[in-house]
Structures are given as C-alpha cells and as structure tokens.
Design goal:
With 288 residues, this protein is of the alpha/beta class. It has 12 helices and 12 strands. The chain folds into 3 domains: 3-28 and 63-154, Dihydroxyacetone kinase, domain 1 (Rossmann fold); 30-60, no CATH class; 156-287, Hypothetical Protein Tm841, Chain: A,domain 3 (2-Layer Sandwich). A hairpin with a 2-residue loop joins strand 8 and strand 9 (200-208).
Length: 288
C-alpha cells in the first residue's frame, strides 16, 4: 500500500491489527506512581491498589509533538503518504499535538500527512481507523479518503457505561458535582449510558435496575440500529472493556444474534480513557 496509518493509541485496535497494517502509534504517557510494582494489567493494578489501601492514582498525559513527529518520520520512510487519526479534539489536546508535529516536517513532506479528528475515542476511533484502512486497501487516493472519512465519522456511534461511579471522582477529570450526582443515582439503581455527540461526551440514555452492562448497552444498540438493520444495512461493531472480557464476549454474542451485524474487534480500553470510568466499564461502537 502506498498510504499508511498512524494512530494515537486511544483507538484501542488489537496488536494483531496494528502489526497487520503496519500502523504507527503515538502513545500516551502513563505514570503508575505507587502502582508500578503491583501485578497484572493496568485495571488489575487499580483494583489491587484499592484493596491495599493505596490512595495514589495513575496519571496520564497526551502524546507530545515529538512523539507524533517521530512516528510521522518513521512511517514516511515506509509509505508515500500517511493518515493520522486521533481521539476527539474536544476531549484531548492530542489532535493539536499531531497538527503541530506536522508543521515540523520538511515542507515537501507536510502535504503527505493527513490528520483526522475522529470526534470519538476507543472503539469509535478504532472503527474510523479501520475505515481508513479499508479505503486505502481499495486504492482510493488521499483526497477521496479525506472526503469519504468525513461521512464515516458522522456514521460512527458510541455507547459506554461504568461499573461504579467512584472512579469518576478518583480520575480528577470531572467537576465535583458529577461523581456526587452519579453516586446518588447509583443508590436509586439508576445508571447513565454515555455517548458521543459532536465529539463531546453526552448522556445517551438512563437505565434502571441494570442486571449487567452488556445487556444495558445492547438494548440501546438494538434500538438505535433497528431501522438500518431492517433496511439491510451492514452494522460494523467494535467492543472495548476495562478488564471484563466476560461482559465483552456476552455483548458480542448478543450483537451477532441480530441480522446484518459484524464485530470487527474486541480489546481492552486504553487506560487514558478507561481509567476515568474505572475497571469493568464497557464500550460499544458501531458504523452503519
């Protein structure tokens, strides 16, 4: 392929997909602090820290300009042009880091780098990345990809739910009233289902007496995609989870029980996203 892809790690694609398509990654910085010597993945460390009474929290920061610049240079040695997809610019400064990095390239290379704001994150951003790959494989040129990916971004939807609201407060990224409000809702057996609207986090629905997150997300997904599925449109799905593979697999089975659905990938939610909503959270995204 003449065109390559770069991502910011928040797209949560599996290592197999990253290796298969030679995708360059600009990684977030993660400071584990007191959690660094605890066993397991990042979510297992978080649970163990809570059990051990460790109050220290993990800190994250976006990829730097130099991080993107390094990956751009690497991939421009492999491909004639590259596309870079990032988490929504309304959630993170990552998109701006990529834009600034492009300016540090030699002038003859700047026009060969195309930066895409996914207006999404996690599984949603991953589906945007896979759409770019599909267009590249089908020999669309860069202008055609830029035009078509805008339509694809508009058709990319995301739903997410947390297991416990306590992690919202621990993340320190939300106004104080938000965790308090969610805690009160939890006591009344009410849980919000989050979505993305115009690149911003929003509440897509409210569920009462939820038995499990997979069922709650599936209900919203089934309702939201019913018309498209009945019209014969193919629905491409991606699922990410904060170390709860059982719920993710259950959600996959429910999705595949519907006609005209396909699951592109299941993977862990990256900690820069999942860390704010905590272990056992679940994300479902799709494209029509």
């Amino acid at each position: 392929m003449k065109i390559g892809l770069v991502g910011d790690e928040a797209f949560d694609l599996t290592e197999e997909l990253i290796e298969k398509y030679k995708i360059g990654i600009a990684r977030f910085k993660i400071d584990l602090q007191e959690l660094k010597d605890l066993p397991g993945n990042i979510y297992q460390k978080t649970r163990e820290a809570e059990k051990s009474g460790i109050s220290s929290t993990v800190k994250t920061s976006q990829p730097s300009i130099n991080d993107f610049l390094s990956v751009f240079k690497e991939k421009l040695n492999e491909f004639e042009e590259i596309f870079c997809v990032t988490i929504s610019s309304k959630l993170s400064g990552t998109y701006n880091s990529a834009v600034q990095a492009k300016k540090f390239l030699q002038k003859e290379f700047q026009d060969k780098v195309h930066i895409i704001d996914s207006l999404n994150g996690s599984a949603g951003e991953g589906l945007v990345a896979l759409k770019i790959i599909e267009l590249i494989k089908n020999n669309f040129n860069s202008q055609e990809i830029n035009d078509k990916i805008k339509e694809s971004i508009e058709r990319t939807k995301l739903l997410g739910a947390y297991h416990s609201p306590k992690w919202l407060e621990a993340s320190g990224r939300f106004p104080r009233f938000v965790p308090a409000m969610m805690q009160r809702a939890e006591k009344m057996s009410i849980k919000p289902i989050f979505g993305m609207k115009n690149g911003k986090l929003s509440i897509a629905g409210i569920k009462r007496n939820i038995s499990d997150l997979s069922s709650a997300l599936f209900e919203e997904f089934e309702k939201s995609t019913k018309k498209a599925r009945e019209n014969g449109k193919k629905i491409i799905v991606a699922i990410t989870h904060a170390d709860d593979d059982n719920q993710a697999q259950k959600l996959k089975e429910m999705v595949l029980s519907l006609k005209n659905t396909e699951v592109a990938f299941i993977n862990l939610t990256c900690f820069p996203i999942g860390g704010h909503i905590g272990p056992n959270s679940l994300v479902l995204a799709w494209q029509e």
